[in-house]
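The protein record filed below.
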Amino acid sequence: MRYYDIVIVGAGASGLMAGICAARIGKNVLILERLSKPGKKITVTGNGKCNILSSLEDIRNSVNSSDKDLACKIFKSIPFQTLKKFFESIGIFVLEKNGYYYPISLQASTVRDTLVTVALAEGCDIVCDCEVNDIVKNGSGFIVNKMFSCDKLIISAGGMSRADLGTDGSSFKLLKMLGINSTPLYPALVGLTVDFKQSKTVDGVRHYADVYLLVDNQEVFNEHGEIVFTKKGIGGIPVMNCSTTAARAIEAGKNVSLRVAVLTQQDREKMLKSIWERLIEKKYTIEELLTGLANRKLVYAIMLLHHIDPMLKPGVDEGLKIATEVIDTLCGLTLKVTGTQGFDNSQVTSGGVKLDEVIIGSFEHKKINDLYITGECLDADFACGGNNLTFAWITGIRAGTYAAGGTIDSDIFY
């Protein structure tokens, strides 16, 4: 059996960061990864560009947690500029683009590769193709897989989102072995399935829209951004950002719907005026009159939804009535939400170990000494925009540093 000062389960964002910080303090560190390569999930973040950091000051409206106050406190515990300087110190320079922060390479793989390179250079051992399925608390330390012993153990194996990228929910099974439960788990940052008879017609359509989430006919969320229709439902950042709220409401037996507005009321008045003027000429079909209002496939789907003959050449009154019906739907298409597209299609997991069960600052479990829990294993998930990675970096830095006996200066905690 081989001994290490610290064993880290999971070579993802928080695990690699924890390993780097612990090794820099001089500890003998082992990082175990069940996949054939470390950091695979990092490589798909930000659509392959890695939305590496968030500079949000007011994060409260962007977090899901059973304790939002603690989640916000953690998120603010290491300032954006400090994190940015850290990444620059290891060779990852940050580019700001439309309020989002990426590595200057715009390649998520460079972030993963650099973190792995630095971890190895600092002296970490990284063992891949090693699925952890047995952890025993042994006096003042731990035994992992009956192969490795350690004084400190860091669980950084992520949530349940994208098993193909390493996060298959095994972290929660390991924690349960140690007597630690999690809150209910939900897929987060995921597309929603909806009841829409024309889903196949609009498959692949992208559109900017105002998105409203309604729970029992009460608006609980709204956001503007690009959406995408699929055969299964609807996705895009605004939809993903409300997906956890939708999932929780559906499980609670509530009526959940999305209202999608690709046109505004201001658009409506201008468009109806233009259509009325063209109707006077009496030479256009309905399809010709409505082409240009929005994506052609979406307009066609709305016509089908209302049983409108696209080839009809209407009179002024009939044409204006039909146009009003289509435009009003484009100003507010209401779709019943039937569920989410599941963990395999989600970016992160909502739920996890309650934040009040760990020491905020070090992330050591309050009841099990020398056990640290980071990243997606914890009950805090955030909206798109680099927030979840930022949370992973922060928890990894803190857990690795304190497990190694170091400290981090912080006006918030100390």
About this structure: The chain has a mean pLDDT of 94. The chain has two domains: 2-186+348-403, 191-341. The domain at 2-186+348-403 is CATH 3.50.50.60 (FAD/NAD(P)-binding domain). The two ends are 38 Å apart (CA to CA).
